[in-house]
Amino acid sequence: MTMDSDTGRRLRDEGCETAEPVAEAPASGRGRRPASEDEARVSPMMAQYVEIKAANPGSLLFYRMGDFYELFFEDAEVASRALGIVLTKRGKHAGADIPMCGVPVDRADDYLQRLIGLGHRVAVCEQTEDPAEARRRGGKSVVRRAVVRLVTPGTITEERLLDPGRANLLLALARRRASESAWAYGLAAVDISTGRFSLGEVEAAGLSAEIARLEPREIVMAEAIHQDPGLARLWRDTAAAVTPMGRGDLDPASAERALKEQFGVATLDGFGAFTRVEVAAAGAVLHYIARTQLGARVTLSPPVRQAAGVSLMIDAATRQNLELTRTLAGERAGSLLAAIDRTVGGAGARLLAERLAGPSTDLALIRRRHDAVAFLVGEGALRAELRGELARAPDMARALSRIGLERAGPRDLAALRDGLLAARAIATALAGAGALPGEIGKAARLLAGVGGDLVETLGAALADELPLLKRDGGFLREGYRAELDEARALQSDSRRFVAGLQARYAQDTGCRTLRIKHNNVLGYYIEVPQAFGETLLKDPWRATFVHRQTMVDAMRFTSVELGELETRIAGAAERGLALELAAFAELARAVMAQAEGIAAAASALAALDVAASHAALAVELNWTRPVIDDGLAFRIEGGRHPVVEAALTRAGEAFIANACDLSGTQPRPGQDPAGQDPAGQILLVTGPNMGGKSTFLRQNALIAVLAQMGAFVPAASAHLGLVDRLFSRVGAADDLARGHSTFMVEMVETAAILNQATRRSLVVLDEIGRGTATFDGLSIAWACLEHLHGVNGCRALFATHFHELTGLARRLDRLSNATLKVTEWKGDVVFLHEVVPGAADRSYGLQVARLAGLPSSVIARAKGLLAELERGDGGRGRRAPAAELPLFAAAPPEPPPAPAPRPDPVAALLDGLDPDALSPRDALDALYRLKAARAQGSG
């Protein structure tokens, strides 16, 4: 954008020279010494800017000037590049041109959204006095300004800046020594936009997984944590903005006091038991909120402690591999979340994402959630009614937060009105539904009677059409305030009032040409012909009319009554807005008086939205309720991959369902049950490329996630024992920034799995060892299988192209083989995508290479080489069979190969015959030869 004439005028008014725009950014002049005393002078406006900017380092300063937010110096250069707006120069500072750009105030949210999305922080500097006041002070006074708010990725509340379906978490970290060589971390997560506040503590090994689960927008921590070399990769890999804080900002002695002050309590015992490091993290997050909100009181729910082990632990690599909430490309579309989301409101969408990110390990809670889904599956009419009302309910939690921050607009009040109306309708519907399962019954109790008379009050107060900002006025309904109606009438009907006064004066004086007029110098005045004006200067009129001005052919007067009318007209808009703002404050106080009940109702609506979403999904796609217990079962019949199935359905194709059984084994008969812990099965999956191995592996992991988040699952039936940790090593990636190859990343992730998996864990591994030499990779894969079997004892799916590993099933009693069926038709490979017991004998790599478009000459050469290798005369490139590998020496000997069949002489003769070319004599001779050959073969 370019700077308009108003911008230049504003700068001139505040003592800054102006110049023409330039196409490129000039040098900022930093570090340059002024060439003269004149150059060293600083304009009052620029002195004010520099002072405010110095107090807010690290933030782009939005400096309010009239209808624009202006940025100067390096801020202007950064914003110009980030926003794609034109950089200009305006005046001089310290002898150098001043880079400058600006954005209109009425479009500031759009630009803020883009800057925040890029990780920038913005200090919003507003004019705190009327420019007329500055002019009255005289001299070189500039309009007083102050930063009213710091906008950071983790502290935004504006509806237009927020993603409706994603929590906007600010996460603070603190730490303590857990041992001489290890740290434990306290985490405090706050969503200012809803008031959510949770605390937790994790060991260092679980920090990355916990941050991945929370998916915060911003992380704040002490400088020492930020500078820890062991965490450098974590800060680099996270998508969150990372903000180090000074040591004094995290004073542990003041953390507990800050918490008590926030909630107005003398002790924290009523909220539960928190560790010292959790309290330290809570103090840090409250300190950062106070700093960014500049004294505005944030309404937060009491802190809830997230105890260790209450949610399924999923590390960052597994989340990425399974594409739970984002695809590998970082998109929501194509993820599991996008495939299962049938919510109709923003709060429900956020709760769904939260439950998917952290599936529960609380068996009773999971069953209550399944009960709620099952109830709504069976109550189709009630489900439709609930979803209809939920779709009409705005996001009450975020509207309530803005009201508490005094950052709300009229539409936020309307959101609460409409949300409470929907809550009332849903409560009525549930009251007539009979016996309700736990989660739905709890929601019904929270919704019953919420809001009281507040709904009627808001309905009577708010107009049908509402402005975005309260400062625009016009949001109160006619008839709500009599004095406001009068002010509005005076403002809109000023011409009628003036015309009525003019008619009365004309009648009283007998001057039919008397007119009431207005100009910017005199304001309203009475004008009569000069001849009649002389009359008004005499009794009895001179007591009513005061002479103002004599013209060539007219005289102008005023009166007390006209002056009062002018005052009322001039102040009507200001008075009307003041009355509306006062009424808005009253309504906001009434809302906050019931904030706790409203927040609880908003949470109840979100929970109903999620339950109804799961039910709608189950009905739509024929998903079933899983059986969940605390054993080691993992038995799935007719399992399907929800994302792949959705894509195939859109393409008009069917998904091939498959079974999977990893159920744990119990001690053998006659063994001491205390002497052997139950352990899970390992399924070794082989098969061709593109046969569906990765889909099969992922779908079973996703079914476990869906079951433990409280949803139904895409399967004919499922019986699952609780999973405590889910690990997935699928796909290839490198970390070139740290000098790590694809194979190194694979080994790091595999090491994390082998070191952390328990008997209750579910492990999904695909192609371990493929990134190195054949024998090296085979050896590593072999050893990993043995470790999973003998040490971890977990339920696992292990896909591989090392067919030699299938021999392990004869010596590892909890390992079995499965393969993907395939067939060939006229030289082409046909993938059947069906998982069956057994082992694959080939990978069909050449067929897949041909499908991928490799040149035919390459395919032909590869076929020849493969034939030589399979005959065993390929030299050094030959893959040794399992019996020749030292690793397999401990395996039971394979049975000797069956003797090669003797050639059939009759078949050989038949193969050489061409019936169409035989004469009768030739045919007779051939018949004799066949008879002789048969006699020879039988002998």
Automatic annotation (TrEMBL):
Record-listed ATP binding positions: 687-694
Segments of skewed composition (Pro residues): 892-904
SMART domains in the cross-refs: MUTSac, MUTSd
Keyword DNA repair listed: yes
DNA mismatch repair proteins mutS family domain ranges (all copies): 761-777
Spans through the membrane: none
Basic and acidic residues bias locations: 1-15
Residue segments, region Disordered: 1-41, 889-914
Gene3D superfamilies: 1.10.1420.10, 6.10.140.430, DNA repair protein MutS, domain I, MutS, connector domain, P-loop containing nucleotide triphosphate hydrolases
Alphabetized InterPro entries for the sequence: DNA_mismatch_repair_MutS, DNA_mismatch_repair_MutS-lik_N, DNA_mismatch_repair_MutS/MSH, DNA_mismatch_repair_MutS_C, DNA_mismatch_repair_MutS_clamp, DNA_mismatch_repair_MutS_core, DNA_mismatch_repair_MutS_N, DNA_mismatch_repair_MutS_sf
Assigned keywords, A-Z: ATP-binding, DNA damage, DNA repair, DNA-binding, Nucleotide-binding
Compositional bias (Low complexity): 905-914
Statement: the UniProt record of this protein carries the keyword Lipid biosynthesis: no
Family the entry assigns: Belongs to the DNA mismatch repair MutS family.
Main function: This protein is involved in the repair of mismatches in DNA. It is possible that it carries out the mismatch recognition step. This protein has a weak ATPase activity.
PANTHER family reported for this sequence: DNA MISMATCH REPAIR PROTEIN MSH1, MITOCHONDRIAL, DNA MISMATCH REPAIR PROTEIN MUTS FAMILY MEMBER
Name used for this protein in its record: DNA mismatch repair protein MutS
UniProt source species: Methylobacterium crusticola
Lineage: Bacteria, Pseudomonadati, Pseudomonadota, Alphaproteobacteria, Hyphomicrobiales
Gene coding for it: mutS
